[in-house]
Amino acid sequence: MSGTVFEKKGALLTVRPEGRLDTAASLDLNEELAAQLDGVTEIIMDFEKVEYIASSGLRVLLTAEQKMEECGGKMKLIHVNEYIIAIFDLVGFMDVITVERG
After folding, report:
1. How far is it, in rounded angstroms, from Cα 54 to Cα 31?
2. Which of 15, 52, 63, 65 lies 20 to 30 Å from 35, alpha-carbon distance?
3. pTM above 0.85, yes or no
4. Which residues contact 99 (CB under 8 A, 6 or more apart)?
5. Would the pLDDT of 2 be above 60?
């Protein structure tokens, strides 16, 4: 996913995906994210420019959340729009992942 910006400062990784997290983009994001996780204990996913998320994108988020839990870390999503919040509500993600509304 070429539109994703990764910014690593110590143990904090900020990820800024862009556009649609469809199947192809989610595969790219998952690979890029996995390559960045060494030494990371906190992930902030800035969804300000994400307009759509497919089930494959949800899997990427769940995997990242699980990796943070395994290392005693945490992940949160910020700037999430109401459309994606509705999807998270529908699939129960609001109970699993920390989300700040847009």
Report:
1. 17
2. 52
3. yes
4. 76, 77, 80, 85, 88, 93
5. no
Tell which phi-psi region holds residue 26, choosing left (phi > 0), alpha (psi between -120 and 50) or beta: alpha
The yes-or-no verdict on residue 43 having pLDDT over 60 is yes
Task: Quote the CA–CA distance of 12 and 3 in Å, as a whole number.
Answer: 20
Q: Do residues 15 and 4 lie in contact, with contact meaning Cβ atoms separated by under 8 Å?
A: yes
Query: 16, 63, 9: which is closest to 41 by C-alpha?
Result: 9
As a whole number of angstroms, the distance between CA 65 and CA 98 comes to 9
Q: Domains in the chain and their CATH numbers?
A: 5-101 (3.30.750.24)
pLDDT of residue 1: 42
